[in-house]
Design goal:
It is a single chain. This protein is of the alpha+beta class and 88 residues long. It has a 5-stranded mixed sheet with strand order 1-2-5-4-3, covered by helices on one side. A hairpin with a 2-residue loop joins strand 1 and strand 2. The termini are far apart. The mean pLDDT is 90.
Length: 88
């Protein structure tokens, strides 16, 4: 993963060798394990906006649809999108 600042926002960019497990560990490390997550889908990427439950800074994990080496990570993002879109 690569950490970037874009327009004042913290971005964590997923790279080819990153996995679901590594992304989960990153979220846990940056949030202290308690957070709200919201997934959005663009043409070329998924974005997971992560808001910690304490005073830590919000950040976004960017997962490219092409060039992501973990199909499970892409499937998880797609499942989150479907879950968020379905009426409860």
């Amino acid at each position: 993963m690569r950490l970037e600042i874009e327009e004042g926002c913290i971005l964590v960019r997923v790279e080819v060798n990153d996995t679901v497990d590594r992304v989960g560990k990153c979220i846990d490390m940056l949030t202290g394990s308690r957070c709200d997550e919201h997934v959005t889908e663009g043409n070329a990427e998924y974005r997971i906006r992560v808001q910690p439950h304490d005073d830590r800074q919000m950040f976004t994990i960017v997962i490219p649809k092409m060039g992501c080496g973990d199909p499970d990570l892409l499937a998880l993002c797609a499942a989150y999108i479907a879950q968020q879109a379905s009426p409860d």
